[in-house]
């Protein structure tokens, strides 16, 4: 790059206004062009992750038919494990790999995580059995949270305190844009040429991200004094754990519906399977809108954004269960669920970083552990109510209940913030 950059000597910009500063207040200078290109390069990784996390939901009918040879309520529920095992990989991998990266230079660590992600998807493409596919999906999920944690901290440092939530939203927008463009495209490719080609596409995207990050992202040292022990000690924080519970419960409702959206669209709404790429496109459009609304709102009020989004999710989920048989209302409500649920993304990522200023890497990774614990829990919750014979509308009602519980936890988070003198 042509722009001159001041060497990084003091670590990241402070991300919290807590009593113990995260790092030195000195901060390297980044030009606008450097910042933009680096954050966009990191967002490509989010795009690849979004494709693998969500495209399997749109291709679940093809996957189930191929792996089990039949489509029944029992095999549909087992197909949901393809979602669950990836999510479990994220839950396990995010804190472990985030801790491993606490003292590492961030650019090289992001490249390492992307390499693991690419190899895991090659293994997924060739996995011959259902059991080995589950193992490969678990492996694919391991670097997910640590990559996003590293990318979010890199983006926040480059953008500075006043624009950090919006910078994080751009990194997270890769997931939302994947649902708008990548997931519908890969769903179509999977329907035409075989559902396993999704994994080949994602592996290629991971390699493209590695090249972009290698070229455009600056080297970035971890915070001064960063250590494994400091990260662990930073977890002794009630607000952090309440925030994690909020993310797990609040996000699970969306996944209770979306994990089975292909079955709901065909068997409840009466749409043809050929329309499914457009269904996931509408959901993705809602995610893009919600992601940027969440980033904008969070720079004004983090927990205010969480409260508003969680209330909307609960309402839209309940209406979805009632009205899913009416095609245009089902599509509209799916868009609104995607919008309101995605508003939570930047807000929760920022909130968790704020709650643990002494453990930034680990706190940032917990957002993705929580998000994917919700993914796993939502898929399991939806599978349970379907397998129990309650029908394909039941996941929507289960999701609305989870979102209502999340709203109560959000109100408690506001109480804790105010009690501690923190900004809401």
TrEMBL record:
Q: Where are the transmembrane segments?
A: 37-59, 79-102, 109-128, 134-155, 167-189, 195-219, 240-263, 275-294, 301-322, 328-348, 369-390, 396-414
Q: Which PROSITE patterns match?
A: MFS
Q: In its UniProt entry, what is this protein called?
A: MFS transporter
Q: Kindly list the places in or outside the cell where this protein is found, as annotated in its UniProt entry.
A: Cell membrane
Q: Does the keyword Cell membrane apply?
A: yes
Q: Which UniProt keywords apply?
A: Cell membrane, Membrane, Transmembrane, Transmembrane helix
What is the membrane topology here?
A: Multi-pass membrane protein
- Major facilitator superfamily (MFS) profile domain residues: 38-418
**Pfam families xrefs:** MFS_1
């Amino acid at each position: 790059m042509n722009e001159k950059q001041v060497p990084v000597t003091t670590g990241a910009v402070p991300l919290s206004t807590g009593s113990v500063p995260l790092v030195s207040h000195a901060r390297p200078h980044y030009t606008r062009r450097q910042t933009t290109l680096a954050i966009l390069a990191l967002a490509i990784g989010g795009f690849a992750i979004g494709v693998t996390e969500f495209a399997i939901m749109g291709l679940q009918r093809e996957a189930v038919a191929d792996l089990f040879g039949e489509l029944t309520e029992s095999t549909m529920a087992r197909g949901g494990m393809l979602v669950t095992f990836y999510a479990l990989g994220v839950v396990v991998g995010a804190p472990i790999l985030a801790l491993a990266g606490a003292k590492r230079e961030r650019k090289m660590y992001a490249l390492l995580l992307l390499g693991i992600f690419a190899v895991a998807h090659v293994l997924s493409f060739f996995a011959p059995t259902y059991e080995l596919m589950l193992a490969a999906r678990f492996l694919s999920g391991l670097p997910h949270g640590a990559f996003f944690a590293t990318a979010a901290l890199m983006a926040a440092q480059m953008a500075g305190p006043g624009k950090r939530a919006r910078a994080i939203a751009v990194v997270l927008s890769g997931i939302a844009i994947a649902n708008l463009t990548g997931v519908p495209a890969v769903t179509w490719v999977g329907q035409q040429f075989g559902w396993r080609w999704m994994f080949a596409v994602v592996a290629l995207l991971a390699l493209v991200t590695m090249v972009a990050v290698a070229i455009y992202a600056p080297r970035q040292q971890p915070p001064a004094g960063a250590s494994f022990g400091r990260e662990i000690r930073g977890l002794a924080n009630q607000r952090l754990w309440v925030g994690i519970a909020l993310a797990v419960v609040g996000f699970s409702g969306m996944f209770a519906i979306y994990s089975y959206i292909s079955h709901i669209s065909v068997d409840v709404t009466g749409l043809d399977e050929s329309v499914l790429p457009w269904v996931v496109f509408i959901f993705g459009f809602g995610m893009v809108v919600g992601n940027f609304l969440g980033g904008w709102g969070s720079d004004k009020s983090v927990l205010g954004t969480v409260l508003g989004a969680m209330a909307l999710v609960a309402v839209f989920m309940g209406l979805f269960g009632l009205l899913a048989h009416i095609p245009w209302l089902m599509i509209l409500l799916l868009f609104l669920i995607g919008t309101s649920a995605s508003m939570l993304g930047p807000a929760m990522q920022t909130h968790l970083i704020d709650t643990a200023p002494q453990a930034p890497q680990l706190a940032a990774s917990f957002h993705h552990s929580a998000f994917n614990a919700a993914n796993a829990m939502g898929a399991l919750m939806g599978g349970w109510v379907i397998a129990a014979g309650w029908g394909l509308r039941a996941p929507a009602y289960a999701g609305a209940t989870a979102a209502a519980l999340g709203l109560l936890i959000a109100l408690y988070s506001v109480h804790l913030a105010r009690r501690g003198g923190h900004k809401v």
